[in-house]
Amino acid sequence: MTIDLHTHSTASDGTTPPALLPRLAAEAGLTAFALTDHDTFAGLAEASAASDIELVPGVEISCRLDDAEVHLLGYFVDPGHAPLAAELELIRSDRERRAVRMVERCRELGAPITLAQVRTIAGGAPLGRPHVAAALVASGVTADAFTLDWIADGGRADVPKHVLSTVDAIGLVRAAGGAAVLAHPRSVKRRASVSDAQLAALAEAGLAGIETDHPEQPPEVRDRLRAVAADLNLLTTGSSDFHGDRKPVRLGECTTSPEVLAALRSRRS
User: Fold this and answer.
1) For residue range 15-30, what is the model confidence (pLDDT) as tens digits?
2) 133 and 145 in contact (C-beta within 8 Å)?
3) Which end is more exposed in the chain, N or C (fewer Cβ atoms within 10 Å of the end residue's Cβ)?
4) What is d(CA 48, CA 232) in angstroms, rounded to the nearest whole number?
């Protein structure tokens, strides 16, 4: 089996409709994949109806770990679990407020973007920072909007948002019957790098695994994460973090073994 446990669709900030993802996944040689849109389950039903390969239901939750933002992948959760659904709704509604204010700040800084342009880029999906970034790039303001000059965390046009603590997010995933995996904990493209000590604390809180093989984590980082995971009895996954045309990665660029997927199922609450 060839398994990719981290993909996105137009239900969040990807550019591929949920119904098209299964076909693309099969064409890429995958036998199973997870749809893990940001803070929503909206694309799962459409993807499931169109899928001839195994679809692992998932979600990627924005969290706060100490002073940094991290992302938690929840697998096999019950979308109807009321406390989790309510928290995701709060995150999504606050993301809209944040995106609107970011557009205002960018305009105050001289960027010729509009809210209508950002909504067009989002294509009906909940507004988010990636859509503002795409508008900045499309307007020729910058080649990379995720910098301190623009909308990176702490940037000139950044706006704080509502986020869960990572420990609370792990608890919600587990309460909803799922298994929690920390996404790209040491990505070279993100300001936050999760320390060994922080990983140990999250393991104590019920974390099931960490995403070791990821396009933004070089081989030496992956090796170190595997060693830490072995010490903490955490599973190690591999994923592309596919966003369609929004990121230069291909489906199945990094993969998860069938044994790890089976172990994730067994670690569901």
Assistant:
1) 999 999 999 999 999 9
2) yes
3) N
4) 34
End-to-end CA distance of the chain: 25
State the DSSP string of 4-25: EEEE--TTTT-SS-TTTHHHHH
> To which residue do tokens 């001839």 refer?
52
pLDDT in tens, 63-99: 999 988 899 999 999 999 999 999 999 998 898 899 9
**Predicted structure pTM score:** 0.85
- Residue 179 CA: distances (Å) to CA of 23, 82, 148, 206, 262: 26, 17, 34, 9, 11
Type of residue found at 211: E
The residue type of 16 is T
Instruction: Give the rounded distance of the alpha carbon of 211 from its chain centre.
Output: 11
CA angle, residues 42, 176, 153, in degrees to nearest 5 = 60
d(CA 186, CA 28): 26
d(CA 207, CA 209): 6
**In the block, residue with structure tokens 């990719």:** 4
For helices 166-175 and 196-204, angle between their N-to-C axes, nearest 10 degrees: 30
Closest-CA residue to 23 (of 1, 53, 45, 3): 53
Cβ atoms 40, 28 nearer than 8 A: no
Which of these, 155, 172, 150, 174, lies nearest to 163 by C-alpha position? Answer: 172
How do 3-7 and 235-238 pair as beta strands? unpaired
Give the pair of three-digit tokens for residue 85. Answer: 């659904």
List C-alpha distances in Å: 81 to 76, 85, 174, 190, 254. Answer: 12, 6, 11, 31, 30
**Cβ pair 158, 108 in contact under 8 A:** no
Gap between the Cα atoms of 150 and 88, Å rounded = 26
Burial class, 228, CB count within 10 angstroms (exposed 0-12 / middle 13-18 / buried 19+) = buried
